[in-house]
Amino acid sequence: MSPTLDKKNLTKLQKLKNRHVLAVVKKYINLCQPHKVTVLTGSAKDLAYVRKLALENGEEHPLSTPGHTVHFDGYFDQGRDTQQTKVLLKKGQKLGDHINCGKRKVCLKEIFSLLSGAMIGKEMFVLFYCLGPQRSRFSIPALQLTDSSYVAHSENILYRPGYNEFKRLKGGNKFFHFIHSAGILKNGVSKNYPLKRIYIDINADRIFSVNTQYAGNSVGLKKLALRLAIKKAHRESWLCEHMFLMGASPSGKKRVTYFTGAFPSACGKTSTAMISGQTILGDDIVYIRPGKDGKAYAVNVEQGIFGIIENVNPLDDPSIYQALTAPREIIFSNVLIHKKNPYWLGMGKQLPAKGKNFSGRWREGKKDISDNPILPAHRNARYTISIKELKNADPHLNHPAGVPVMGIIYGGRDSDTSPPVVQSFDWPHGVLISSCLESETTAATLGQTGVRKFNPMANLDFLTIPLGQYIQSHLDFARRLKKCPLVFQTNYFLKENGVYLNQKTDKKVWLLWMEGRIHNDFKAEITPIGFLPRYEDLTCLFKTVYQRKYTKNEYQKQFSIRCANLLAKLKRIKTILRKEDRIPAEIFKQITAQQQRLLATQQKFHSDIISPFCFR
Ligand code: SPV
Ligand code: MN
Prior knowledge:
The mean pLDDT is 96. Helix 11 packs across helix 17, helix 13 crosses helix 14 and helix 16 runs antiparallel to helix 17. Helices cover 30% and strands 25% of the residues. Strands 1, 4, 5, 6, 7, 8, 9, 12 and 13 form a 9-stranded mixed beta sheet that branches. Strands 14, 15, 16, 17, 18, 19, 27, 28 and 31 form a 9-stranded mixed beta sheet that branches. The structure holds sulfopyruvate (SPV) and manganese (II) ion.
C-alpha cells in the first residue's frame, strides 16, 4: 500500500474484507497522490473530524448560530453543469439526443490526466455510505473518495452511514464509487473551473468529478449516484426517480397517505414535501419497488435535504424557516453573510447592503463583467440539513421496508397551459402526463433561466438509458403491481397577465384533494385532460384549511381547460418524441387520444378556453 495510507487507516479498510474496495482506494491514491489518506467509518469522532477540517481549510466558515456554517462555491460553479456532465459510452452504445454523452475512451483519458496528482498536498477522505435505509433490499452501498471536506461534510449530513453495509457485501463488488477532487482551491473555492468535468462511467458503476464543489456536481451520492441507479433500476425492473417522499394526513382523519412527487429543480418539490401538518421522508430521490402485497413501496435514498433557500420565509415555508433559524448542524451555501449571519432572497426581511457572497466582498450596486447587478445571494443558494432534525420528519424515515406509495405527483413551472391540479384517468394516462412534462428552466442548472424545456418525469437530466426504455419501464412497472398509485399533475405557476393565479400556500389544498381522491372522499369532473376537482370540494377544503372563501371566479380562471395551449404542447412533445428511438407506441396512442378529446371539446364549446363548469 502507499506510504500515505497508514496502518490505522489501512486496518479499517482491511476489516471490510473486500478486495474490490481495496483496489479502488489503491488505484486512486496512486493516481491522485494525496499526502494523507483518512478512512472514515461514520463514527461520531469521524463526523466531528470532517466538520473541523472544513472550517480549518476554509471550505466552510462558522456563523453566529451554533452548528451553522457557510460554504461558497465559485462564481461559475453555482449550479449543476449540464454541459460538462457526460455519460461515457463505449463504441456502439447510444442514448439519444437528449442525453449529453462522451466517448468513454477519450473521456477516461482526459479525466485520468486531470486527476493525476490532483491531490498533491491534500488529504483524501475515504467514505462509506448507504443509498437508502440500512439493512434494506432497496439499498446500494456507495464508496466516496474526495479531497473536499465540504463534500464529505455534506455527505455526512445527507446520507446514511454505510461502513457496515460494505461488510454485508461479503467481499462483493455491488457498490457504486465516486472519485472527486475540487482541484486547486483559491479562497476556499475550485480555481480551475474551465476544467470542470463530471463523467458518468455507467460501464463501471463509477463517477468522476473534478474542479467543482457545487454539490449537484460534486456530491457523489446525489445526482451522480442517481444516474447510476437509473441504469441499475432499469436492469432490475424497479424505478429510480427524481422525487420527494411524504406522508399526507388530513386533520381529523387518522390516516397517512404516502405520496412521491417529481418536479424539475426549483419548482416547489421541497416545499411540497414540507407542507405544514404533513410529514416528510425525503425531498429529492426515491427508489420504488413492488411490495409483496402488490403495492408500490418507496424509500428515500437520502437522510437530509440540500434545499433551495430562496423564498423560504415564515409565511410560505414556516417549517423550513423555523428549522433554519435554530441552532443545529446546517451548511448554508451561496447566501449573503453579514456579521456572521446568513441572508437570502425572499427571506421576508430587509437584506443588508453589504457582506460576503458568492462573488466575494459584496455591496449593493456591485456589477458583474457584463455590467449586470450581482444579487446579494445566489438564486440557487441552498441549505444542507438532516431530516431527522425536523419536527415534521416521518417516523418511517429509516424503515428498511419503505412506505406504500398511494399517489404520485408530477409538477412543473408552466405559466399558461396546465391547471393547478389534475388526476390522470389511469396509469398509462399518468405515464403520458409525466412523459410530456415541460418546465421553465431555473437557477438550479447553469445557463439561461425561464426557457420552456421538455423534462419527462423531471428526470431527463439524469437519464442513463434511452428515453424510450425509460418511459417503457414506467408503463411496465404497473404490471408488477396489484394496486397502482393514482397519478396527478400539479402546476403552481399558472399566470394571467404576468400575475400568479394562485397563492403559494394553495398547494396544501391540492394535496389534500389528491389525498381525498385516493380514499374516494371526493367525486371529480371528467374533462379531456383527466379528472379535475369539483368547485364544492375545493370551497370546502379552502374553508377548513385556511378559513378562506374560494370564489367561483378563482376556480374558473385556474381550472379552465386551455385547449389551444394544451394542443400546442402535445404537438411540441410529439415532434420531440418522434425523433427518439423506440418511444412506446402506447405514448403516441395516448397523445392522439388526448388530442382528439381536446379537439372535440374545442368544437363543442366553440372556444379555446373552456370553463370547468362546462363539464358538470
Ligand atoms: C436539483 O437541482 O435537482 C437538486 C440540487 O436537487 S442538485 O444537487 O444540484 O441536483
Ligand atoms: Mn433535485
